[in-house]
Amino acid sequence: MHESCGIFGVYAHRIDIARLIFFGLFALQHRGQESAGIAVSNGSEIKIHTSMGLVSQAFTESDLAQLKGYIGIGHNRYSTAGSSKPANAQPIIAKSEGLTLALAHNGNILNAKLLRDELHVDGYSFHTSSDSEVIANLILASPGKSWEERIRHTMYRLQGAYSLVIMTQNKLIGVRDPMGVRPLCLGTVDNGWVIASESCALDHIGAQFTREIKPGEIVAINADGVKSFEGENDKKALCIFEYIYFARPDSIIQGKLLYPARQAMGEILAQEYPVDADLIMGVPDSATAAGIGYSHASGIPYCEGLLKNRYVGRTFIEPDQRIRELGVQLKFNPLTRIISGKRLVVVDDSIVRGTTTPRVVNLLRKAGVKEVHLRICAPPIRHPCFLGVDMATEWELLAARKTIPEIRDYLGADSLGYLSLDGLIRAVDLPREIFCLACFTGDYPIPVQMGMDKLALETMPEEEPVGSQK
Ligand code: SF4
User: Fold this and answer.
1) Separation between Cα atoms, residue 440 and residue 423, nearest integer Å
2) Does this model's pTM top 0.85?
């Protein structure tokens, strides 16, 4: 399962802003690995560099050296709307009638096609097939005397999930959709301000966490300081998968550090699905904390059964079929001498399509593991996501097609236990009402159309792609 992007913005004088954004994006790499980009303004001119690949591949020293200014935004992309190609890399620059903005988006807009059709009729042109460009143009097309008014007007029209960082020539703006589906937080650095998808990115650049940006809030930063414009209080729908898998365990969302929440998922799993075993392991990295939690609650020792090669990026793996078939083997190496002959509890974060888990089980079997007992930190995923996660069709979802015993057999495990929804909510320790739980329950926070296509905008006419530009 892949999330739809990491976003980062800085307003600060007297520091190397491009490098700061580079390291912020580096800390958010887990949220998107297809492309990366940075746009910077010096008060009169916006410069941008975007490229496919990981943050470390996307920028050279000379790329960063050319991005001079005191306001900047950055983006890591995983595509949930529009395919993975250079033209869809962000930030996006949009211009109209003397107005210019750069925008980076995390989320998914459900009514993007309709809005894009309208904007086309009004003469707006599009250079990408992503829904983010629809947001950018809609802001330019919206009425209002200020950027904040235009953005508020745009928010009335958008349906879906969007955390945004927006840069004008002299302003940095953070926006979170009224449901608060994706996280966004505010911090300070060297007399300046930072906006980031997750607080872990603030820690890495030496910034101080100030607070989370509220659902429906617009935060605008310029030479006069920070202004907040709170919005309407819609039904909240924070994606619970941020707690299970997407966000880093050292991030704080809704006032909760994720690491203990993940540990609690493992502890509750141990109560709900106990088993006689010799060792516990978590599939690295996202299930490590839950594995340790299972070990604490069960009294069974924890081990690192699989070592992860953290430097294998998706971009290297995907293009070549033969290499792709090596799959998990490129990523994980089992500690055979430790796990061979053992009854092993394997804690994992989730099962979506069921493509990776059987390979992990197979790898462990080959390493001589006697029994594999799978414990999953989420309930079965039976419904697609339309709010920024790449699982948009029901037929792709293993639990939508098979019963739990069938899934156990398909995965090749000796036993299988999914954390209950109640158990998950207890582990996160926040009110159930604030979460989107739709992929477990089918109860979507807003009306959705089944079978929506993440490439829906792909078939629409496009202008010349804009890659690296001034
Ligand atoms: S449907 Fe699932 S993955 Fe999508 S936003 Fe809701 S909880 Fe998150």
Assistant:
1) 13
2) yes
